[in-house]
Design brief:
Elements (H helix, E strand, L loop, with lengths): L3 E5 L4 H12 L3 E6 L14 E4 L5 H8 L4 E4 L11 H21 L4 E5 L27 H19 L4 E6 L1 E3 L8 H10 L5 E2 L3 E6 H14 L5 E4 L2 E4 H12 L6 E2 L2 H18 L7 H6 L9 H7 L6 H14 L4
Parallel strand pairs: 1-2, 1-4, 2-3, 4-5, 5-6, 6-10, 7-9, 8-12
Antiparallel strand pairs: 9-11
Helix pairs in contact: 1-6, 2-3, 3-4, 5-11, 7-11
């Protein structure tokens, strides 16, 4: 049995996949979850569950006691919130707190889960990578800004001597996406037949279990202070929705809408969300992000870590099957 490691956000979509990957590799896993969190993703999984909060430093010290390593996966992944400051608190202050706790507990290594949202994009839509520069001013929305700043904090800690490897997942798809994530919501809505129209954009789709394997590889083989894109296949949104329609027995999307036509709908959806308290089906930040295809290369992770990703179609099939089995349809 390898040493004990802590996974923050272990009950979440990516976090639970990381837990399962670590167990497959023989690690003893301690799972950090907030007292109010839904922990169904850990049902039947042989982990030690500890309750704590990224905004409660003493609880983090207790959780990290006797651990060798940390996988900081927890994050508030929303493209809209009634109070955007909540996203910043969790993603930036929470990262600050847990990295300080990791230093106090003298952990051997930390894997910090960032996002491709922190990377720049090429104007010609060719795949970006870890060296594609980005500026904070170019980050659209609170989520992207919070991830950009928390990754910058992790890099500064690494430069100061902490052993921290950074991973940048693209758009994970697959089982256990309970909330679901914004990407998972798009897949689910399409599978339900609720997306007859689409905008011209693209994503890099990757199976969540491949992202999880990439986390373990980063822990075992990554270079401190270095970041690694954990991606899969670049696909247009139209191609993604066609596969989803085929797998769920629906008609594929038939109407392509210009971004300018969708933006007023997003503003109306957000206005109604503020009144109703419900998450909007479409957010202004999501439409702004869709103006540029988000394509990425995982070449560095493939060469330096031995990372591999299965075809995107398998990720989409597994996601749809899980949503169906869990009664989301």
């Amino acid at each position: 049995m390898n040493a004990r490691v802590l996974v923050s956000g272990a009950n979440g979509f990516v976090g639970s996949a990381v837990v399962l990957a670590l167990l497959r590799h023989g690690y003893a896993v301690r799972a950090l979850a907030r007292p109010s969190s839904d922990i169904r993703n850990l049902d039947g999984v042989e982990v030690e569950i500890v309750r704590g909060d990224l905004l409660d430093p003493p609880s983090l010290d207790r959780a990290l006691t006797a651990c060798e390593g940390l996988f900081h996966v927890a994050a508030d992944y929303r493209l809209w919130a009634r109070d955007p400051r909540a996203i910043m608190r969790t993603n930036l202050r929470g990262t600050h707190n847990i990295l300080l706790a990791a230093a106090r507990c003298k952990l051997r290594r930390v894997v910090h889960t960032s996002s491709v949202a922190t990377l720049g994009l090429h104007a010609d839509a060719t795949p970006a990578d870890e060296d594609t520069q980005a500026r904070l001013a170019a980050m659209i929305g609170t989520y992207k800004r919070s991830k950009f700043l928390s990754e910058a904090l992790a890099r500064r800690c690494a430069q100061a001597g902490q052993d921290i490897v950074i991973v940048n997942p693209s758009a994970p798809i697959g089982p256990r996406d309970r909330k679901p994530t914004p990407t998972g919501r798009t897949i689910l809505d399409a599978a339900r037949g609720r997306m007859p129209a689409y905008v011209d954009t693209g994503l890099n789709i990757v199976h969540v279990d491949d992202v999880a394997e990439g986390h373990v590889l980063a822990y075992e083989r990554g270079q401190s202070g270095r970041r690694y894109v954990l991606g899969g296949t670049d696909m247009s949104l139209h191609a993604i929705l066609e596969i989803v329609a085929e797998c769920s027995g629906r008609r594929g999307p038939w109407l392509r809408l210009p971004h300018a036509a969708v933006m007023p709908v997003a503003y109306l959806a957000e206005a109604w969300a503020k009144v109703s308290g419900r998450t909007p089906t479409l957010s202004v930040d999501a439409v702004k992000l869709a103006r540029h295809p988000m394509y990425f290369s995982s070449h560095r992770a493939e060469v330096e870590l031995g990372y591999r990703a299965r075809p995107a179609r398998e990720a989409l099939v597994d996601a749809i099957q899980w949503f169906r089995e869990q009664g989301y349809f």
